[in-house]
Amino acid sequence: MKALSGVSEQLKQYFIITGNYWAFTLTDGALRMLVVLYFHQLGYSPLNIAFLFLFYEVFGIVTNLVGGWLGARIGLNKTMNIGLGLQIVALAMLTVPTELLTIFYVMAAQALSGIAKDLNKMSAKSAIKLLVPGEQNTKLYQWVALLTGSKNTLKGIGFFIGGVLLSYFGFTGAITIMTVLLCMVWLFSIFALKADLGKAKHKPKFKDIFSKSRAINLLSAARLFLFAARDVWFVIALPVFLAAEFGWSHSWVGGFIAAWIVLYGFMQAIAPWLTKKKAGNIQTPKDAAKWGAILMIIPFVMAVALQMDLSAKIIVIGGLMAFAVLFAINSSLHSYLIVEMADKDGVSLDVGFYYMANACGRLLGTVLSGWIFQLYGLGACLTISAIFIALAVLFAALIRVENLCN
Description:
Blueprint: H1 9-41, H2 46-52, H3 54-74, H4 76-93, H5 103-131, H6 137-192, H7 214-234, H8 237-245, H9 250-269, H10 271-274, H11 285-306, H12 312-341, H13 347-376, H14 378-397
Helix pairs in contact: 1-2, 1-4, 1-5, 1-6, 2-13, 3-4, 3-5, 3-13, 4-5, 4-6, 5-6, 5-13, 6-9, 6-12, 7-12, 7-13, 7-14, 9-12, 11-12, 11-14, 13-14
């Protein structure tokens, strides 16, 4: 903690929360790549691999709803540390001998990881609302974008680490290394995070987990389809396509997807500067709809191009780079809007509900990614992605500007 002695308590907590989020994200990204590549190596079909993540996404949905309520009652420091602890348990479960790694067993471990991930993310995003002084919209946008962007950059590095660890240490060895390192972060976090951060003044009832705000409901629907649009081709279809069609090794697949996510995370972090408006104007849902409409063009053009006699490598790699930039801007705008629109007292309730919708989108995208790719190929996944983005644009456009601030 000596390195933080010269900064304000507000910044100390922000750095600790961000550091926790980073450490968790490294293991989450690495675990995702390890599971996809290892079980593809064992001969699992794309649909079966998708089912390995089914509980991860399903329990993420439940966790965001219940976790937001829990954070408002017991504090965000506790929910963040619970998330780190559960991730350690999930990783430890996967260190058993290979013959015990049945589909159902891995799904159970992934369920714990899903609970852990969404407790961690909900806690980190909610805490920023409490650390930024009121009415500082630009600073809030920058802090949210920096947290989200840096997290995704680290997730990309995690994808790369997952591929490399699998190549050099095998599945069990890789999981063991990550478990030990995350235990060290967890022990530090227990003592360093401020107690009672995010506790609501009035204890919320369980029925309060569902948002009563029309604006937040619409933004949540937009988030659902935005992330379903990404995962429908990115989660299962893309890594399997790269390995099967391009003949890339585990390290190459992990490295390429890592580079994509690093670019994506960097673009998220600088999104406030890319979308900078005139002084005094803040970002609104109309801006989210505008950027979503631009994003929709990318998967549509890629799907059409794949049907033509063109180089698949140029289409996929070039399209991915363009998608990274535009999706990053969309994601940062959405992440800022929910934190800005959330009620400060019990902020985790609104943020939890929103990320419940995010988890629903990931679940929908993950299952469709394996199913549609197995039946119809990458082009069909991209077509569905364009349709989902169009729905996200529609829901964002329906949010009235006057509902932006609580």
